[in-house]
Hints:
Layout: H1 3-10, E1 17-21, E2 28-33, H2 37-40, H3 43-54, H4 59-66, H5 70-83, H6 94-103, H7 109-118
Antiparallel strand pairs: 1-2
Helix pairs in contact: 6-7
Amino acid sequence: MDWQELTDLTRGQPFAVERVRLAGSGVVIEGQFEPPQLAQLGIDDQVFVAAFVRSHGSIKEMERIFGVSYPTIKARLNRIAELLDFVDTEPAPAGGDVVERLRRGEISVQEALTELEGSR
Length: 120
């Protein structure tokens, strides 16, 4: 069974994978695994995302492939983006590293205070 069949069977309802078999070794892993975010999209959205990646993010190419206008492509991208969680690319504040090092016992409380005051 492939993702498309699974997506059709679940009809957009959330699901969990409970068994994974590694094809090359036959090793089986059981547990409760959430499928990747892209696999949780409907099949039409999966095809749309794949086409967007293959077109190197060119909205003009997407217009040509799907025969729709720029606003339609943008609206669909925005709708799909709302369904996906994104990795936070903002660096953690400098103080967060100091606190972590303090927790691990790598620095003393006084050293932590000195570093935090110095970062102001």
